[in-house]
């Protein structure tokens, strides 16, 4: 006796194949939608901003006249802020990750920390701005400086770096750690000579991606009161400053339409910078994943 | 043998007296019990492991033989839920005493694992890893250690022209011998081997077995194996583990030709396991 009715199998075949085709179409459409939106956005920005994008745009400070307006202060402000964020966020972030993964015993306390790190990653960035304003600008009297802005941004991206570094550390094979411990290495020697070298590509990739998030953020810096019209470069970490997203925000809120084109030019610069950073992250990841 | 290390004062073990007192045993295990959470993995283990001989530990899967060998250098403590009672004395000192530092123990008791686990570094860097963490920096001394260790592991001829190449480029058998060389580089007293040939092909297995015969002149070797023929071929003493207990421990010839316990006989004649 045959349990499988061949006629029924045959009649179902067409529907099954058609269903497969339709769903493929839907998924392809979803992907295309995102792509089309991106292309339109880029097209608009480029056609608007390309006219203002020349050498002078990088050499000029902010100005009341659109043709004289430049991004110099904001560009260097962003670099200055990165100089604060990168060391602060990486040191604290990687330190936390190593402690949680290698040293801390798994108990209620560490679980509590772990949950809160994940929660912090979901806190709106404006809340970090409020924190920065209260703690760094007012309590520690740093004023509206590069340092205060950088520290606020470090806090913002810290959870991202911690989670990325934890994953990188966790993915180092257990066998390598065992080999090191079995030869009488201490925990720190094992971390320094085995765990970190193997985890560093992952840590760097996560770090760069987090950093590129930080230089694109506007809200926390508006909160701590970064300046919007700056005609000088920061001289030290306590100088006032502006950064690219704030400069762009400032330009778009002006009534003259010419400034909207200047803003588009600013966006091109910011996008280029983000693209370069993300590409570096991808390069690092590919280079090291081939080696192992 | 010990000259290189002694010069640098790495081996701190004050063991002259015990050495005379218990010359023929490196490990003395007394009423040793071990639990993973609530499951008891080792029950009342009690025997002496002789010096400069090969001691094989055999038994079916899950009998606790790997757990036991990992207790000998306290690697088993890396499992967080482990609980232990009883004593394991190494050269007359209880290794579970508070003041006994596990780093010190593992400097004298090396280990080779089931799967070859070289570091993703050059062959040279793999071998000098141990000496370097113990503070030996002199390039000439390190070079000598590399040559001696690789010769000791019967790998020197195969790799002497490519010491700076990544160890991952070696075959599985070569990697395992590199791991043995890495272990020899800190000039240990005991070498623990946890099924060192289970991931290797027959020819590589044979090479490692020959190597073990060579090494027992200078080292005390404890080897876990699920391969009874291997135990019979290379060991002087054999312990048969079953369900976390030592059923029988005696000379290898004796155990395989004339076992005293019925369960040992059943196992070695292939009636179970």
Structural description of this entry:
The complex is a heterodimer of chains A (292) and B (273). Chain A is an all-alpha fold. Chain A folds into two domains: 6-52; 58-291, MetI-like (MetI-like fold), CATH 1.10.3720.10. Chain A contains eleven helices and no strands. Chain A has helices at 6-49, 55-59, 72-103, 108-121, 125-139, 146-170, 174-181, 187-216, 219-224, 244-252, 257-291. In chain A, α3 (72-103) packs across α10 and α8 runs antiparallel to α11 (257-291). Chain A starts with 5 loop residues before the first helix and ends with a helix. Chain B is α/β, with parallel strands linked by helices. Chain B has a single domain (3-268), classed as 3-Layer(aba) Sandwich (Rossmann fold). Chain B has helices spanning 3-7, 16-21, 65-72, 102-108, 123-133, 139-152, 156-159, 172-184, 202-215, 228-234, 252-257, 262-268; strands spanning 25-36, 39-50, 54-58, 82-90, 93-94, 109-112, 190-194, 220-224, 237-242, 245-251. Chain B has a six-stranded mixed sheet with strand order 6-7-8-3-9-10, sandwiched between helices. Chain B starts with a helix and ends in a 5-residue tail after the last helix.
Structural features:
heterodimer; A: 292 residues; mainly alpha; MetI-like fold; 2 domains; 11 helices; B: 273 residues; alpha/beta; Rossmann fold; six-stranded mixed beta sheet; 12 helices; 25% strand; disordered N terminus
- Strand proportion of chain B: 15-25%
Q: The CATH topology of chain B, please?
A: Rossmann fold
Structural class of chain B: alpha/beta
Sketch the topology of chain B as an H/E string, one letter per element: HHEEEHEEHEHHHHEHEHEEHH
Q: What is the CATH top level name of the largest domain in chain A?
A: Mainly Alpha
The profile of the biggest β sheet of chain A is: none
Intertermini distance of chain A: 56 Å
Average of per-residue pLDDT values of chain A: 87
CATH architecture of the largest domain in chain A: Orthogonal Bundle
The total count of helices of chain A amounts to: 11
Number of strands of chain A: 0
Whole-number tally of structural domains of chain A: 2
Our Rg estimate of chain A from Cα atoms comes to: 25 Å
Q: What's the CATH first level of chain B?
A: Alpha Beta
**Whole-angstrom Rg of chain B:** 19 Å
């Amino acid at each position: 006796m045959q349990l499988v009715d061949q006629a029924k199998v045959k009649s179902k075949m067409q529907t099954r194949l058609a269903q497969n085709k339709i769903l493929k179409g839907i998924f392809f459409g979803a992907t295309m939608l995102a792509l089309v939106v991106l292309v339109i956005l880029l097209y608009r920005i480029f056609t608007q901003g390309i006219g203002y994008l020349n050498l002078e745009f990088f050499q000029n400070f902010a100005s009341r006249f659109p043709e004289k307006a430049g991004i110099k202060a904001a560009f260097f402000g962003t670099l200055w802020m990165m100089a604060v964020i990168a060391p602060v966020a990486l040191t604290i972030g990687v330190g936390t990750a190593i402690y949680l993964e290698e040293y801390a015993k798994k108990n209620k306390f560490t679980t509590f920390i772990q949950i809160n790190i994940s929660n912090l990653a979901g806190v709106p960035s404006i809340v970090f701005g409020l924190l920065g304003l209260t703690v760094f600008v007012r309590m520690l009297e740093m004023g509206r400086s590069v340092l205060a802005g950088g520290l606020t941004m470090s806090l913002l991206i810290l959870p991202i770096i911690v989670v990325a570094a934890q994953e990188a550390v966790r993915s180092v094979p257990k066998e390598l750690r065992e080999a090191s411990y079995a030869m009488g290495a201490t925990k720190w020697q094992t971390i320094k000579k085995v765990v970190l070298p193997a985890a560093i590509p992952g840590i760097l990739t996560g770090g760069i991606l987090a950093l590129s998030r930080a230089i694109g953020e506007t809200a926390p810096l508006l909160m701590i009161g970064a300046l919007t019209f700056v005609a000088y470069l920061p001289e030290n970490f306590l100088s006032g400053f502006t950064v690219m997203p704030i400069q762009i925000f400032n330009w778009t809120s002006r009534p003259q339409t010419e400034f909207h084109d200047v803003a588009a030019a600013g966006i091109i610069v910011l996008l280029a910078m983000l693209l370069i950073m993300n590409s570096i992250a991808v390069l690092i990841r590919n280079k090291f994943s081939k080696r192992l | 043998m010990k000259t290189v290390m002694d010069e640098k004062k790495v081996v701190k073990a004050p063991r002259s007296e015990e050495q005379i007192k218990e010359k023929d045993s490196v490990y003395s295990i007394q009423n040793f019990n071990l639990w993973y959470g609530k499951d008891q993995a080792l029950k009342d283990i009690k025997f002496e492991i002789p010096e400069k001989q090969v001691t094989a530990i055999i038994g079916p899967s899950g009998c606790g033989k790997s757990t036991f060998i990992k207790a000998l250098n306290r690697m088993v403590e890396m499992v967080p839920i482990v609980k232990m009672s009883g004593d394991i004395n190494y050269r007359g000192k209880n290794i579970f005493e508070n003041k006994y530092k596990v780093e010190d123990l593992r400097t004298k008791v090396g280990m080779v694992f089931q799967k070859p686990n070289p570091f993703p570094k050059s062959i040279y860097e793999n071998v000098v890893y141990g000496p370097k963490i113990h503070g030996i920096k002199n390039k000439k001394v390190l070079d000598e250690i590399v040559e001696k260790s690789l010769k000791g592991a019967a790998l020197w001829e195969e790799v002497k022209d490519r010491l700076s190449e990544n160890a991952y480029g070696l075959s599985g058998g070569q990697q395992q011998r590199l791991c043995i060389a890495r272990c020899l580089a800190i000039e240990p007293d005991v070498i623990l081997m946890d099924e060192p040939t289970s991931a290797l092909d027959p020819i590589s297995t044979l090479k490692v077995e020959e190597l073990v015969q060579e090494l027992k002149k200078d080292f005390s070797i404890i080897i876990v194996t699920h391969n009874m023929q291997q135990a019979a071929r290379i060991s002087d003493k054999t312990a048969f583990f079953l369900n976390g207990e030592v059923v029988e421990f005696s000379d290898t010839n004796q155990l395989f030709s004339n076992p005293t316990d019925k369960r040992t006989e059943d196992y070695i004649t292939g009636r179970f396991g």
